[in-house]
Amino acid sequence: MSRPARFETRGDGYERWRSWDPVERKERYVYVHQLLCISDGADPHLVFSNGDYHVHHGNRIRWDNRPSNVSLLDSEKHEQHHRSHRVAGRQRVARADGGRR
């Protein structure tokens, strides 16, 4: 007997659809931001590339799945983007506390 897909929000804010795969006998997931990116014209093969590409939330709010907030980035550029924001955030903290951490 097949089970209907269920919508859920993970504890970290990502929204996804969850369904049972009777052939593989395991849960399968598809994330709303992935579906949105595809509906906005992204190549599904890139969206589901096992990590070569990532769908990025521009404002870093994981449940903000507006088309204007998501974009497809290759994994290296995505990591560089987040790395530069982490460094900038640490610099802001350092300035805010007078350089004491």
Describe the fold and architecture.
This protein has 101 residues and is α+β, with helices and mostly antiparallel strands. The protein has one domain (6-96): Alpha-Beta Complex (Homing Intron 3 (I-Ppo) Encoded Endonuclease, Chain A), CATH 3.90.75. 34% of the residues lie in helices and 27% in strands. The chain contains three helices and five strands; from the N terminus they run E-E-E-H-H-E-E-H. It has helices at residues 32-39, 44-47, 75-96; strands spanning 6-9, 15-21, 26-31, 53-57, 70-74. The strands form two sheets. The protein has a three-stranded antiparallel sheet with strand order 1-2-3. The mean pLDDT is 85.
Keywords:
101 residues, alpha+beta, Homing Intron 3 (I-Ppo) Encoded Endonuclease, Chain A, 3-stranded antiparallel beta sheet, 27% strand, globular, HNH endonuclease
**CATH topology grouping:** Homing Intron 3 (I-Ppo) Encoded Endonuclease, Chain A
What are the secondary-structure elements, in order, as H or E?
Answer: EEEHHEEH
CATH class: Alpha Beta
Fraction in helix: 25-40%
- Widest sheet: strand order? 1-2-3
Q: Categorize the overall geometry.
A: globular
Q: Which spans have pLDDT < 50 for at least 5 consecutive residues? A: none
Percent of residues in beta strands:
25-35%
Number of helices: 3
> What value does the Rg take, in angstroms?
17 Å
How many β strands by DSSP? 5
Structural class of the secondary elements?
Answer: alpha+beta
User: Which CATH architecture?
Assistant: Alpha-Beta Complex
Number of domains: 1
What profile does the largest beta sheet have?
3 strands, antiparallel
Distance between the termini: 57 Å
